[in-house]
């Protein structure tokens, strides 16, 4: 819902990009299966000047449940939408109930929500709750208290509102990928704006400097509490050739 669409800003065609969830899987035993298709890039990515996140115009999302009652999804949905509707009316959250083989090997539920802005930015937040493996629980151990569907819905809605409030063209979980794509661009200037840098993003900047020798110029904006980053790409090209 978010990551694949982010690639189009760097010249990756959406045709051929596909992420299909064959089976859902929740911890601890998993069992999920995902099909990912990514087309080859002819030459290089495209440098970007991506600094305007715009205003939120709609919120979309999906709840999922695996091997539990499908009513759980409705409880998550109503809790999340109840918080979102205080700020924006255009909110649609869909449901995806799985059971049997398509539901994986463990029971659980979760929700993923995305805010779309007037400039085409997508800001996301998600969370899951999973049941422990009954076989590994001893008779003396207490049954763990799981977060209720209503609390999960409110938590994820609050997480998304916090991501939007921080500003930036991507959410905190996509900062590292954004910086990597900028570093892989042709030797031209890319300029992006994000919210508060996460520890993972900071570590990614260090790794990019070490492996690609690409330095970012970081300029905080005290007025909006955002950070603007500029770099000159390493000019990495796709050297793959078809085998005849």
Could you explain the architecture of this structure?
- The chain is α+β, with helices and mostly antiparallel strands.
- The protein has a domain at 56-166: 2-Layer Sandwich (Dihydrodipicolinate Reductase, domain 2).
- 25% of the residues lie in helices and 28% in strands.
- The protein contains five helices and ten strands.
- It has helices at 3-7, 71-84, 149-166, 175-184, 199-212; strands spanning 18-23, 33-37, 49-50, 56-66, 91-98, 108-117, 122-130, 189-194, 217-221, 226-232.
- It has a four-stranded mixed β-sheet with strand order 3-8-10-9, covered by helices on one side. A four-stranded mixed β-sheet has the order 5-4-6-7, covered by helices on one side.
- Strand 4, helix 2 (71-84) and strand 5 form a beta-alpha-beta unit.
- The longest helix is centred in the middle third of the chain and has 18 residues, at 149-166.
- The two termini are 35 Å apart.
- The mean pLDDT is 90.
- Belongs to the RNA 3'-terminal cyclase family. Type 2 subfamily.
- GO terms for molecular function: RNA endonuclease activity.
- Residues 52-164 form the RNA 3'-terminal phosphate cyclase insert domain.
- InterPro entries: RNA3'-term_phos_cycl_insert, RNA3'_phos_cyclase_dom, RNA3'_phos_cyclase_dom_sf, RNA3'_term_phos_cyc, RNA3'_term_phos_cyc_type_2, RNA3'_term_phos_cycl-like_CS, RNA3'P_cycl/enolpyr_Trfase_a/b.
């Amino acid at each position: 819902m978010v990551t694949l669409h982010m690639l189009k800003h760097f010249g990756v065609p959406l045709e051929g990009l596909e992420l299909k969830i064959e089976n859902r899987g929740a911890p601890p035993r998993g069992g999920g299966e995902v099909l990912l298709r990514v087309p080859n890039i002819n030459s290089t990515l495209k440098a970007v000047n991506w600094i305007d996140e715009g205003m939120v115009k709609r919120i979309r999302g999906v709840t999922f449940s695996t091997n539990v009652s499908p009513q759980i999804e409705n409880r998550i949905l109503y809790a999340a939408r109840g918080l979102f509707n205080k700020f924006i009316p255009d909110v649609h959250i869909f449901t995806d109930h799985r059971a049997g083989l398509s539901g994986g090997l463990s029971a659980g539920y979760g929700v993923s929500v995305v805010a779309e802005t007037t400039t085409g930015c997508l800001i996301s937040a998600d969370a899951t709750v999973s049941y422990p493996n009954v076989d590994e629980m001893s008779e003396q151990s207490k049954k763990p208290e799981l977060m209720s569907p209503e609390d999960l819905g409110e938590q994820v809605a609050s997480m998304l509102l916090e991501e939007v409030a921080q500003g930036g063209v991507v959410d905190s979980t996509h900062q590292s990928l954004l910086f990597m794509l900028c570093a892989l661009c042709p030797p031209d200037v890319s300029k992006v704006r994000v919210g508060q840098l996460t520890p993972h993003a900071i570590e990614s900047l260090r790794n990019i400097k070490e492996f690609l020798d690409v330095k970012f110029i970081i300029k905080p904006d005290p007025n909006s509490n955002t950070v603007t980053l500029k770099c000159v790409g390493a000019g990495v090209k796709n050297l793959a050739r078809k085998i005849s």
